[in-house]
Amino acid sequence: MKILVTGGAGYVGSICVEHLLDSGIATVVVDNLSEGHRAAVDERAAFHCLDLRDREPLLALMQNEKPDAVIHFAANAYVAESMRDPSTYFRNNVSHGIHLLDAMVATGVRKIVFSSTCAVYGLPLKIPIEERSETRPINPYGESKLCFEKILRWYAEIHGIVPLILRYFNAAGASERRGEDHREEPHLIPRVLQVALGQRKSVEVCGDGYATSDGTAIRDYVHVRDLAAAHLAVLQREQPSLYNVGTGEGYSVLQVIETAREVTGCPIPHKLCPPRPGDPPRLVADVHKIRQELSWAPAHSRLSKIIESAWQWHRTHPAGYPEHF
Length: 325
Ligand SMILES: NC(=O)c1ccc[n+]([C@@H]2O[C@H](COP(=O)([O-])OP(=O)(O)OC[C@H]3O[C@@H](n4cnc5c(N)ncnc54)[C@H](O)[C@@H]3O)[C@@H](O)[C@H]2O)c1
Ligand SMILES: O=c1ccn([C@@H]2O[C@H](COP(=O)(O)OP(=O)(O)O[C@H]3O[C@H](CO)[C@@H](O)[C@H](O)[C@H]3O)[C@@H](O)[C@H]2O)c(=O)[nH]1
What we know:
With 325 residues, the chain is α/β, with parallel strands linked by helices. Helix content is 38%, strand content 18%. The protein has helices at 11-22, 55-65, 79-84, 86-107, 140-159, 188-196, 224-234, 253-264, 288-294, 303-316, and strands spanning 2-6, 26-31, 46-49, 69-72, 111-117, 162-168, 170-172, 203-206, 218-219, 221-223, 241-245, 251-252, 270-273, 282-283. α1 (11-22) links the parallel β1 and β2 (26-31). The chain starts with a strand and ends in a 9-residue tail after the last helix. It is an enzyme of class 5 (isomerase).
């Protein structure tokens, strides 16, 4: 089996590539390195520095490689940034994704695992959130992902594409060799650990006026290695499928900071700042469907374990990945 992985130099993609290769699956990575790092790509994978915007080289690559399936991670993925620059989000996450689908149709590749997000649910009326819940995104990032989900359904109906949609909740943690290293890191756990490393004076708590137990926003953090395993599991499916991938447990921003203090032994000062535009107060997955249908269960996703693995990676890679590789 051979899988083409877009965005395989990024955080989740690179760890998924490592997992695929460990499972004996040949892997071809496509990434424009806008956010990803060449050094994050497993040396056993073939690597092509290519932008999905460029249709012709993408089609040629698909014709040469003839993958059995595609896993599509490549996207812009920051909620707050999408509130400032929706154009980039719709162009990259929707239009450039269509180039990938067209190349699949042209070369007869049917299966695509798509990295969707709990951001499609917007402000859910019921927690935990089931897959059949209403989808009303409150930021352009979530809207762009929902839009691509809908496009996938039409490509399934018209072209026989098999979309395997995974709506991840918050990916976090690291493998032994790979971790989270974004150029302007917006995510909570790595930012908290930057404080523990002395790279940042304090961590900002974005809003404490939400209707949650301590007033700070709640997320469902899932270990990136568990997420990688979900990709392998869903590849067995032959029919269009949609699953939440989370743990069913939610933690507030303050709980994350407190757990990081316990794990690192560092004081990690925090200060209050205004809420981030586009942020829902609470997102927690109902994961019955993926547990039942794919026999998938999170094995590494206890919050302290997630933070321990991330801490281990950040301590050994304080400057992240080397830029020159
Ligand atoms: N990290 C999370 O918590 C989370 C949660 C839900 C969904 N997701 C989705 O999972 C996927 C991976 O997220 P991540 O956190 O690893 O992000 P990331 O930014 O680390 O990885 C995305 C990768 O895609 C590449 N890329 C972007 N546009 C491209 C293009 N046009 N052509 C080629 N490569 C391109 C980037 O260089 C980067 O390496 C994204 O689709 C994201 O929306 C992530
Ligand atoms: O320094 C920080 C960073 C974040 N937060 C808050 O922490 C929570 C989690 O933020 P973050 O780690 O940035 O994740 P999300 O904004 O929830 O977004 C991630 O998780 C989404 C699903 O929730 C994915 O779709 C996105 O791709 C991914 O970036 C949010 O309430 C933030 O406001 C802070 O309080 N301080």
